[in-house]
Amino acid sequence: MIELYSWPTPNGQKVHIALEEMGLTYEAHPVNITQGEQFEEGFLRISPNNRIPAIVDRQGPGGEALSLFESGAILLYLAEKTGRFLPADPAGRYRTIEWLMFQMGGVGPMFGQCGHFRNQAPERVEYGIERYTREAERLLQVLDRRLGEAAYLGGEAYTIADMATFPWVEVGERLGQRMGDFPNVLRWRDAVAERPGVERGMAVLRERTVKPEELDEQARRNLFGAREE
């Protein structure tokens, strides 16, 4: 049994999707980041950086419990645990890890900042909006070029790199992006969205989602002070 500590945001959803795609038994525990629950002492013991998601695998290596934070590390662990969605051949493996790191180091942080300045900042900051909207557009251009070369980010097979990136692309319109400008991304997004495991993963904890405009000032501070990663 895997204990999942998460919230229905892109970084949480990528792990939700992986657990569903891999057919692993898990229990989802909501960590309401709009209410500051990520700062509670119990969660800190699992996630030292006070970020969602985090997991505890009760049957980890050697049968011992293992806790992990950082969504990229979790995806790699789950792929290796199940032997799925991470190619065995070295070239395919590192190509997948390359695009996973692209999401972790580029898409996630930049899209997250774009979403913050456009939808969550307590006051409008034009410089921040312009800077991160342009960067989100640039990253989508990189993805579009890659997906013009291959069916999926890692190559011709669907992998954890796609699981990691899909939830962020899903919010592209909310980041001021004209998604029609990225036809290869749209083709890929639609194909990934049709997967039953993705549908189930995106639905995990969804009923708890709060719209940005519904957040009070304290909730906005919680989000600003404790981003997902």
TrEMBL record:
It holds the Pfam family GST_C. Gene3D superfamilies: 1.20.1050.10, Glutaredoxin (3.40.30.10). Belongs to the GST superfamily. PROSITE patterns: GST_CTER (PS50405), GST_NTER (PS50404). This is Glutathione S-transferase. SUPFAM superfamilies: GST C-terminal domain-like, Thioredoxin-like. Residues 1-86 form the GST N-terminal domain. The lineage of its organism: Bacteria, Pseudomonadati, Pseudomonadota, Gammaproteobacteria, Chromatiales. Residues 89-213 form the GST C-terminal domain. InterPro entries: Glutathione-S-Trfase_C-like, Glutathione-S-Trfase_C_sf, Glutathione_S-Trfase, Glutathione_S-Trfase_N, GST_C, Thioredoxin-like_sf. It comes from the Bacteria.
